[in-house]
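Same chain as my last thread, 368 residues:
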Amino acid sequence: MRGDEECQAGFIVFTSLEDRIPTDHPLRAIRRLVDQALREMSPLLSSLYAKRGRVSIPPEYLLRAQLLQFLYAIPSERRLCEELEYNLLLRWFVGLPLDERVWHPTSFTKNRDRLLSSEVAEVFFEHIRSQAEAKKLLSREHFSCDGTLLEAAAFLKSFRPRKETDGGPGGSGPQGSGGRNALVNFHGERRSNDTHVSTTDPEAQLARIKGKEARLSYRGHLVVENRNGLIVSSSATKATGRAECEAAVELLTKERERHGAHMTVGADKGYDTRAFVSALRHLDITPHVAHKRRYSAIDGRTTSHDTYAVSQRRRKVVEEPFGWMKTVAGLDKLRHRGLAKVKAIFSFACAAFNLVRMKNLLAELCPA
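reply #2:
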């Protein structure tokens, strides 16, 4: 005998979101680390808002929601707000009460843009990093560095001659048919960053990895400690030819000033240049870079030591954050334009990676 469906018009829930989340859920450990960082950032967040006016979305909600986009690979703000409507776990992590309405996606974006600054992102990253240092998860002597291309939110069709973007005669090219998505034939045309610029994101640069096609990109840079693979310093720059080595020297200079102790740095063959090696030796940092067969800047004074072989094995840990950011955090294709926002998003993604890594490390050190 078939049973009849009972349609319930409504119900009253006598519980809280805290009771619905398992005590051993991984997000609980991450939430504790994030809350501590946000409490320490409270003065900075307060300075971003006026004393009068309409009450805004709390910045703590916005920053936790931003982290959720990285942790759960949520592709857009609209999808995030949709998830918050019915996903109790995500609502709990953000801190949004069960009886409070979720913001409209455009309201979320407008309010979030206030926090998309390199200052807020870097301060948040530093607070997460300081927690890792306080828990003795960071090495103070052995590091690795590397860089990667981040594809910009701009298509190659937007890469137009500068004379057109500077007010010269426009059009869509000799083969153009006009309109928003004009037909353009680039074959035989020489294009470079000196003669062309993107009309969608003028700060994006045409760059490529060896063996792959050129794309409009930015470049992300990391310094990772070799013990647990945590990110200790990061930056995002324009994708120029010398950006990798210059950014690495800048980041390592900060680390040298922070620790004041002798350091070793592992890196791939791209860093085996005289300028990079001499800059590191000037900082009293031993450059454990992979040496080239010809015209190498390092010699037996470096490669003969056992620590060089160890650094070469461990330097590959710097690839793990890049892989996580591009496969999970959604940085395989940027969604924001302009170097300032790219810097902020990259710093937030680095903090998110450290949070996931720290959660795993602390679970191993202090199992329940």
